[in-house]
Amino acid sequence: MPAENPSTAALTAEIHAWEAAGASSAEALSTWVGARLAAHEAALAALLSVEGLRTADNSLRFYDLAIEQLNLAGAQAGVLNSVAADKAVRDQAQQEARRVAQAGSALSLNRPVYEALTAIDLNGASPATRHYIQRTLLGYRLAGVDKDEVIRGNLQRLNERATRLSLEFSRNIQEGAKMIEAAPSELDGLPEDYLARHPPDTEGRVLLSTDQPEMQPVMTFAASAALRERMFLAYNTRAYPANKEILEALLATRQEIASVLGFRSWADLATADQMMGSAANVRAFLAKLNEASLDGASREHKSILAFARRRQPGLEAIDSASRAYWFEQFRRSAFDFDSQSVRPYFPYSQVEAGVLSTAARLFNVEFHRSNTPAWHPAVSVFEVLDGGRHVGRFYLDMHPREGKDKWFSAAPIVTGVHGRVLPEAALICNFPGGEVGEPGLLQYNDVVTFFHEFGHLMHAILGGETEWAGISGFAAEGDFIEVPSQMLEEFFRDEKLIQAFARHYQTGETLPSETIKKMKLAGAFGRADWVRTQLYYTTLSLDLHDRDPSGLDLDRITKQLHEALQPWTWVEGNRMYTSFGHLTGYSSNYYTYAFDKVIALDFFAQFDSKDLLGCDAGSRYRKTVLEQGGSKPGRQMVRDFLGRDEEFRAFSSWLNEEFEEEAINFKILLI
Ligand SMILES: [Zn+2]
Fold first, then answer.
1. Ligand 1 centre from 311 Cα, in Å?
2. Tens digits of per-residue pLDDT, 260-270?
3. How far is the CA of 271 from the centre of ligand 1 (A)?
4. Which residue in 17, 455, 472, 656 could disulfide with 488, CB within 3.0 to 4.6 Å?
């Protein structure tokens, strides 16, 4: 690969992998990533060749260009691994993602680069620049850059192994769809449009896949307990047994990395540069979470069990495979609310328009449809304008497709740099709809998910005008990253905002206020249970990484924790740990969701509930939090916006929210 001149112009050329010469071929992708990595190397060489006094301007600049190229290559290899239509391109993208991760791992142990950054004179540097350098140097020390050469070589091999195992683990989940057979009679309770999409075959069987849009309605609505259990087991074993061995190897590799670096456990290492700071702090947080949610969750479980026993005398207990179903039945009955009844008010295209217009008003920006080509014709592209100024671009790839990642996520495409590179990001989701003539009716939770992912997207875009690529967009601590997403979710509880877009797809009728009240009440019921589920996942993610994993029995620990933290009966044969995809990205730090929920709710409480979009909290939040990207510590952003540290108060009242008199009226229906 010929070395490129690390000038700004050369480095920002060819910003989209899918537009590279030869477009969608695996070979073109490889060439494109190769060019980014060559530019990365060239920038590092330029950094090392600086003579005399090192300054941010003559040294950090080259380091940051190297990071920019690495981010670009890593982001797009990652996205194409999830979305490319051609399997050959996805396979290639996976290999390229590995190549980029290897370059990242090599950089994290590059002693000359570390020494060059250490030598930078910080006199007169901006606070963001200081923070960037200090955080980068901490990262270097946590990677083991100060160890001798043999140990560094060993660490590099271990990091590469961990990356390879993580990618295989995710890929097995992504491609591990299973099919189950159902008799038509077992589909009782499922919505009409679902039944219409799944007619019996010539032998009278209905085939259902474990993909989200086929799985979720079965778990929520199918009256047949046998069908729910088959679907639950198929879904939770879709990457079993392959991922069991991979996870064991991954945990062993991570523990070895931690030991080599002098940490007791991977969890201590993985939290050292986070807001949380240590595994012990995570445990202290989990104890608070346990205390805050125990009574509420127990009340919820008792109500559901008593209800289910009235419906089905002789029922002893409710297992995990039936939890969602009984929750749904209970909500319908107790709150006179059927979540099916609101789906016609949430056709995909209206929800999209509603989420976009809410965000546009909240953050005072405009979104315009764009002709910029994406990786697939099904993707819509939008340009983001702020007072007429072009500040970013995003891609919405929102419906399932053969071979596409089955999850819901926001991903960076290009990390922005002030005045030089426009930030770009994408949502990769699997909402119903997308086919001609199919309205794509969303469930309540789907709409919440849309707001959530859009919160991430706005963080990537509005945080994309920082001074350096390395502190742009999502670059805050990993355990701050779910604050903007969970904050935006809360906006879906506002009646005025909901009514601005929730209109019946056939009649045009606005979703009635009465229904919204019931929907919110029904939605509030089950929050404590949700927190317990988070507590279970979080404790599992921590426990797997906070001990010596040799001899660890994954099946046993998964079941034990479930029994300790969940009121629902364990389903034998559940191998959820093989499809718990967050174990690769979050590793021990899945606590992020619950921790950030506490912060997000405290943030949301700063908004005027009577005028969410009109009050000044939106612009303050944009400025003190989103626009900062990673240019200051998360702790500082919390203090800048709240004027203090986060507290549990808003979280606790959210957890025990009662809609006063309405709640009393609706509860009468329980009897
Ligand atoms: Zn999220």
1. 36
2. 999 999 999 99
3. 19
4. 455
